[in-house]
Amino acid sequence: MADIMGIALGPVHHIGIVVRDLEDALTLYHGQLGLPVESRHDLKAHGVRAAFLGAAGARVELLQPTRDDTGVARFLLTRGPGLHHVCFEVTDIAATLREVAADGMELIDTAPRPGAHGLVAFIHPRSGQGTLIELIQV
Question: What is the pTM for the complete model shown?
Answer without folding.
Answer: 0.89
